[in-house]
Amino acid sequence: MNISEIKRQNKRKIQRIKEIKRQKGILGVTKSIYRYIKSNCSLKNCRSIKNYYINWLKYRKTNSLPNPYKIIYINPKKIKYMVIPSFQEYYSKKYSYILPGSWDVNKTNAPPQQIKETTSKNNRKLALFNKYFLYQSFKEHYINEEPWNVTEFYTHGLEKVENSPNSSSRYGSREKFLNRLDMLDRLFVEIKENGYKTQKELHGNKNTGKRYPLNDGFRIIPEKQEILVDIGRDGEFIFDDGRHRVSMVKLLSLDEVPVRIFVRHTKWQEIRREVAEAESIDELSEKALTHLNHPDMNDVKKGLLV
Q1: Which superkingdom, per the lineage (predicted)?
Q2: What pTM was computed for the model?
């Protein structure tokens, strides 16, 4: 994140404060600032800041330092695996990260819901996204035209309604959950008929934004809410967050969708740095040459003739 981006971010924060003041008054602004301070003092956020700025110091002198809000377009078919547990459960969406480990190669054929008990933040595994119960439920409903109430997603949702102590959550009541299903149906139809829109497009056009269910209105940084993917050491795209949208775009067989890269494996980042520092293609290793046309290389190979 460079200085100009930080300035733009601060400007958006000021605009957001003005918007809250207009809608909810000084009391609303006070509550929002309190929540912001509280969330930024969490262990999750401290962990996030530490990782981001350690990598900032390491890569700042090269052109390979990732822009946390850079959007790239990929074919959803390339997202075959999902990481469990997801990184967004442990790291703030405000940044992007570079992490070592075997999290990108610990693959299993078991359904995602079956391996949760054998995983942790220090022992992540990859499961096939197409075996995820939510994706299977969406397929039954949208492709096979089965009613929601025969899907596992429906059963799972009602169980959460019964067990949820927080009435303000999305699963706080049966009525809320059924309303959410209706919103999902409308979102699927909207994407099918009018295409997939970026969060920036939705927030920049009030009329478009109103058409899209699950769109939660004004955002300081709309890119932060895009589908999150991680990249393994060999350039493989791995799902991290945005399960409803990824399930839909896969079922609709869209050619490309905008995504934001959340976590890069350390070995992949080293390939990015190699490309960024090379003055000609002749200086690149065979592995770097293999990945030169990868979507995540577009911002670092500008000086090279490909």
Answers
A1: Archaea
A2: 0.81
